[in-house]
């Protein structure tokens, strides 16, 4: 079952169960996927985006909500922060399991070895390798500095 199908199945179930907040988040996910479909159709003529694109959409949505949670908490709007956190929980159901720190380190080492990277100039190759294999499984914003530290040793 593709991610798109999983989202649609969960959306239908949320309608049946009358879970308004979950339903709203699932509709947001569906809308983001459809927006990406339209953009892909205009660009390539493709009709649907694949699972990798859906994972990227979900990752972006999660990151946006995490930033909103921080902003709301700093502004003293705990109620809005909680709502964003609830949305993160729904979105996370469709993301693959996040890698542990040890697994991320091992993945970085493997990518460095496979690309033959030796300097900071090769960082793009390493990131490309990691994004190809681990989309949705690690925070690439946090991985970048770790790669830099490793290459500058």
Describe this structure in words.
The chain is an all-alpha fold and 153 residues long. It folds into two domains: 3-92, Hypothetical Protein Yqey, Chain: A, domain1, CATH 1.10.1510; 101-151, Arc Repressor Mutant, subunit A (Orthogonal Bundle). 76% of the residues lie in helices and 0% in strands. The chain is built from seven helices and no strands. The chain has helices at 3-17, 20-43, 51-74, 78-92, 101-115, 123-134, 140-151. Helix 1 (3-17) runs antiparallel to helix 2 and helix 3 (51-74) runs antiparallel to helix 4 (78-92). The protein is globular.
Overall SS class: mainly alpha
CATH architecture of the largest domain: Orthogonal Bundle
Unreliable spans are none
Residue share in β-strands: under 5%
CATH topology of the largest domain: Hypothetical Protein Yqey, Chain: A, domain1
CATH homology group of the largest domain: Uncharacterised protein YqeY/AIM41, N-terminal domain
Outline type: globular
Number of helices, counting only DSSP H or I runs of 4 residues or more = 7
CATH class of the largest domain: Mainly Alpha
Q: Helix amount, in percent? A: over 70%
On the 0 to 100 scale, the average pLDDT is 86
Radius of gyration: 18 Å
Domain unit count: 2
What is the assembly state of the chains in this entry?
single chain
Task: Count every beta strand, where a strand is a DSSP E run of 2 or more residues.
Answer: 0
- The H/E string reads HHHHHHH
């Amino acid at each position: 079952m593709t991610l798109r199908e999983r989202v649609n199945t969960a959306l239908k179930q949320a309608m049946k169960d009358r879970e308004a907040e979950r339903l709203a988040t699932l509709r947001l996910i569906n809308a983001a996927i459809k927006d990406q479909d339209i953009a892909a159709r205009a660009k390539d003529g493709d009709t649907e985006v694949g699972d990798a694109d859906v994972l990227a959409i979900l990752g972006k949505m999660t990151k946006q909500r995490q930033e909103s949670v921080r902003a709301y908490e700093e502004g003293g709007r705990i109620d809005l922060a909680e709502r964003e956190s609830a949305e993160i929980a729904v979105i996370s159901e469709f993301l693959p399991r996040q890698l542990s720190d040890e697994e991320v380190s091992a993945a970085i080492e493997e990518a460095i070895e496979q690309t033959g990277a030796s300097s900071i100039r090769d960082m793009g190759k390493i990131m490309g390798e990691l994004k190809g294999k681990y989309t949705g499984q690690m925070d690439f914003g946090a991985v970048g500095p770790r790669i830099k530290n490793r290459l500058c040793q």
